[in-house]
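Contributing new records

If you add data, match the layout below exactly. Sequence lines come first and carry their own label; structure lines follow with theirs. Keep one chain per record. Anything else will be rejected by the validation script.
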Amino acid sequence: MTTLYLTTAERALYDVLPASVKSAWNGTVEEEKGTAWESDEELEERIVTFSEEATPELKQFVEKIQQKLKNKENPDDLNFSDIPEKLIPTILFVIGARGLSQMLEGLLRQENVALSGAAVFSEARHLLLESNAAYMYV
């Protein structure tokens, strides 16, 4: 079963979604308890490392995401289907749990959101927060 891990702010957005959207969701909803959010410096370090290794197309795609996040815009109009599947985890790591949160909040603001899609981002963020926490204690 798939789980939506939601912060308090995200849960508030979820709670006001239409009943038809929530009833179509077959998963569970849990509180996101992770607290190992990236600092600006950590995200910048990830970007630099990624930029050194990325193709120009991938670099441009990540820069579009970052610009939208920086401007508090929802990057959900970007087409992930053009990105090779094996590179998506790298992109999600680069934008970090903070970027994924912004994306997730943007999705939850849409009345017709597919919660299964939102769950993918929430699961990725949940795993990133766990990874960040493990890294902080190494």
